[in-house]
Specification:
alpha/beta; Arginase, Chain A; eight-stranded parallel sheet; two-stranded antiparallel ribbon; 10 helices; globular; binds zinc ion
């Protein structure tokens, strides 16, 4: 059974007239889940409490966000992150929904979960909003899972076209949370070099797989098959959280990649099958994805795979970037190979 949080209430985070991270994204996605669908359990969103948020953010920052959200006002939190009257409450609901699905997945009430919530989270820093993100939903869920469920290994997989600098920052010196990311590079926000592999106790537990623009399904399949899958096998995460952004889609107006909707399904199939081998539940949290039809299509492919479907065969494509990833990450994870 797949637990899905999809609710029009997430349209109440108002980003102004022309913002790509628009309420319409939720409207489009929600049309996939209007009716009762076999294999899907609809889960109501629930607010995170402030203690949960403070597992990953400074108290003063959380207060600042609460105070910024006032009637009739749009406040710029950074260059491109806006909050409106309801944004604080909706951001609490977004984080709370990922927390709820994570708890249900760890309690085996659902096999997997997907929170179609906004604002997104992976750029949000400890005490700063950034890149459309206010609270780091997956980082909060990872910290809560470690604290309340007695687990020791959480893996965050991020296939958004942008590097999740906020998430990487949160766990850069921490081996209890591994961060794996494929992202366009160089690109916003500028972080995510292949040589950034963590520090101290966390050395080797940040796995960056940067790719230059224009990459297709096969390049992504190669990174997931040859780098991610063997690392899952070796690390044996007890929970997998996915920062699921769909802005690497060929139709996306912001990203410069060339993925198809089925490509997202194929990536998901590799994650699903590797997770099954180590019995790790998977919870997806929506990040980017700004072409509305591509967003809806890609999510439909991902959900089909999570319900047990199979994706068409996509041949992996090698290249010098893949070689560098393999050479770098094999130092820490000898199973990584082509
Ligand atoms: Zn993005």
């Amino acid at each position: 059974m797949i637990g899905i949080v999809s609710d029009p209430i997430f349209m109440d985070h108002d980003t102004g007239g022309y913002h790509p991270e628009s309420p319409q994204r939720i409207h489009y996605i929600h049309t996939l889940f209007y009716q009762n669908t076999p294999g899907i359990m609809m889960i109501d969103p629930v607010s995170a409490n402030v203690d949960d948020i403070e597992l990953n953010h400074d108290r003063s920052y959380v207060r600042r966000i609460a105070q910024c959200c006032r009637p009739g006002k749009l406040v710029n939190l950074d260059m491109d992150t806006v909050c409106s009257e309801d944004s604080y409450n909706i951001a609490l609901l977004a984080a709370g929904s990922v927390l709820r699905l994570t708890g249900m997945a760890l309690n085996k009430e659902i096999d997997a979960g997907f929170a179609f919530a906004r604002p997104p989270g992976h750029h949000a820093l400890r005490s700063n909003a950034m890149g459309f993100c206010i609270f780091n939903n997956v980082a909060i869920a990872a910290r809560r899972a470690l604290k309340s469920f007695g687990i020791k290994r959480v893996m965050i997989i991020d296939f958004d076209v942008h590097h999740g600098n906020g998430t990487q920052d949160s766990f850069y010196g921490d081996r209890n949370v591994m961060y794996f990311s494929t992202h366009q590079y160089p690109f916003y926000p500028g972080t995510g070099a292949v040589s950034d592999t963590g520090k101290g106790n966390g050395l080797g537990y940040t796995v960056n797989c940067p790719l230059s623009g224009g990459k297709r399904d096969g390049h992504y399949i190669a990174a997931y098959r040859y780098v991610l899958a063997p690392i899952i096998q070796a690390y044996e995460p007890e929970l997998i959280l996915v920062s699921a952004g769909f802005d690497a889609h060929a139709m996306d107006p912001i990203g410069g990649m060339d993925l198809s909707s089925k490509g997202f399904g194929a990536i998901t199939e590799i994650i699903r099958d590797a997770a099954r081998e180590v019995s790790a539940p998977i919870v997806f949290a929506l990040e980017g994805g700004y072409n509305l039809n591509a967003l809806k299509d890609s999510i439909s492919c991902v959900v089909d795979i999570m319900k047990g479907g199979a994706s068409p065969d996509i041949a992996p494509v090698s290249g010098p970037e893949l070689d560098t990833m393999i050479r770098t990450h094999r130092k820490f994870w000898p199973l990584v190979h082509q």
